[in-house]
Amino acid sequence: MQAIIEQYQDTIRTAADNKSPLQIRGGGTKHFYGNAPAVQPGAFLDTTAYHGIVDYEPTELVMTARAGTRLADVEALLAQHGQMLAFEPPHFGAAATLGGCVAAGLSGPRRATAGAVRDFVLGLRLLDGTGKDLRFGGQVMKNVAGYDVSRLMAGALGTLGVILEVSLKVLPNPPAEMTLQFSMNEAAAIEQMNQWAGKPLPVSATCHAGGELFVRLSGAESTVRAARVKLGGEEMADGEAFWQSLREQTHGFFQSGQPLWRLSVRSTAAPLALPGKQLLEWNGGLRWLSSDDGLDVETTRKLAKDAGGHAILFRNNRARQTVFHPLEPAMMTIHRSLKQQFDPAGIFNRGRLYPDL
Amino acid sequence: MSAQALADRLRSFLPREAVLFEAEDLRPYECDGLSAYRQLPGVVVLPQTEEQIVKILQLCYATRTPLVARGTGTGLSGGALPHAQGVLMSLAKLNRIIAIDPLARTARVQPGVRNLAISEAAAPHGLYYAPDPSSQIACSIGGNVAENSGGVHCLKYGLTVHNILKLRVLTIGGECLEIGGDSLDSAGYDLLALMTGSEGMLGIVTEITVKLIPKPEKAQLVMAAFDDVLKAGNAVANVIAAGIIPAGMEMMDKITIHAVEEFLHAGYDLSAAAILLCESDGSAEEVADEIERIHAIMQQSGATGLRTSRDETERLKLWAGRKAAFPAAGRVSPDYYCMDGTIPRKRLAEVLHGIDQLSQHYGLRCMNVFHAGDGNLHPLILYDANQPGELEKAEEFGGKILEMCIHAGGTITGEHGVGMEKINQMCIQFKTGELQLFHAVKAAFDPLGLLNPGKAVPTLHRCAELGAMHVHHGELKFADLPRF
Fold it and tell me: What does pTM read for this prediction?
């Protein structure tokens, strides 16, 4: 395995010497996400060669694996021990890798209650833009030695370095789950989801789509049963498949082929008046918008910002718009400085997050 | 610039009483919760508004004056230790809870607000702020952000980094950054994570939006006594293996049990080698279910005594002993030195054995309290500062414990921060490359190095000098650096 790292280091040093862009690629399942490179990458760095579980101790609630390990393999191993990645990362294909999962920083239905990828990252090993092999964080739950560089990598889309290994906190699977369904309009659903989120209830996921509110309960059998009585609604027969279809975006809503926007906003924000169809998750904190190419980008970004958040053009960016929400100048300055420090030659995934990163 | 000249400049835009520079006025600021490190600052400023802070920062920037931020001064690693030629900025007067949004379950607060005050303000809505460091009645939320503070419930509810949404941060140049958002994620890099635990080295936080969560319907506690520390450690692993994430899981060793029991009469078993406190919280059904299972697991794990709290009074009484561990140490010894390593839990018995050997070697007693769920160990080294050489011995003993934590696959600090105290051990935990990158991260925010200089990340020269003194198995650390 050390030979693979040395190969990666050679590739990085060569690219850095030539200031030639390098694209980091895992399973390629999230290739659609982010801006297309402005310049065609001179070379690829394939992370799938560096794979395998490094360490997993179920009773320590920590799993360490190499970045090229398939996400499916990680989850299968955890499942054997009754544990899970609680942030329910989307795979978007069988080839999805752990490194890609962390670099993309995407989390699934349980995010509002359990936390996001970054919340579960305990440590990682990284190659920086000069090929240095670095380790940050560790394999323990609490660690405040040094800046939290590990979490900084979550969602950085590989622009700061090549993730080699990741240590994640894992959690036990809930013993019981049940999905409830209620007919409700969007405004009422937003109010209801947030009301429930403020009560000690075992709600682990919520979704509003097509005039229906879906609520997943997770926990001990007795807790789920008691909450079911308190909440009312109809029990959904194939709840698990439903949440899976949201997580992997195989649900009909995501299949239109239209530009798909991801608006992350204050969960209590009133329904966003935008043309197209919307699907809500995370108690209203995440709003998917499927709209045609005529959608006004500026209006969309402004509405998301006014609602305390930001908008991402997630999929089907046919008009090649800027994908991510523009940053304020002072923030952009910090981003550029960080990029400069981690990747002085500017080789890693150039332009994928922002044009000059 | 002389302190007098600096004070004059500061008084041109701050009220007279907000600028202190007479030695007697500076004295209360000479240390934080780690009183072994003391230093009088050049000037103390007590701003009340963000505009005033901007001007202070701009002045420091223009005059290249070091600036150290301070909350309520409860930190345990010397992170708020003043700089002799610098400005110490207390944020204690920015103590307003700006707004609570019960439906969105958030609170917007100023950095000087006390941790517990947030939960008190949220209580009428059935909500609270989860991280609960032991000092929560006094410590400020700004300090919590700087240190990424934890508490006894963080295995289940997370650390500060998991419980904040947004920060307003001023850079040393006086520019304002909005980091994070009212949403669950934000555009660009996760600077919220980078800021949390950055020990006042990257920017000055002037406003924090925290998450509030619903107060559990019920909480109940099981106290289990063991005749062997190893058995207690295994019991913790067995609880987790059963798929239970306890709300709190604390361990105390024999010497702690005795010190606490004498002090508080919490009803702990004095014959025990270790006591575990395991709390369950949630809905009434969930707690009943979980407590029954925890009880059974403790029994199977060889507990010699078991007690389950029957009501809130009994639960709080059992907790009181654990929470009084530090004051109890203060009763059995004139001074104590609190360490903060984290280790993989499976290495507990070995590390405790090592601490015991060190204790004999240095002739100093050591009490061990342990956040057993998440592996965070707090050895309290007992010493007497009036005995010549004891403080130095205690510090050396502490340093050895931290090194042992690193060798066990853990870290030198779980929640107290590096500050001034553990700066040497940073040289052992990290190599040149990582330390260089830490300095680079700081430079991205604070290129002149004016914010809290000399803390948290050691210079490579410091490590080289230190490395020359402690060669481990003949491996010279930082061999690539020039020596003196």
Answer: 0.96
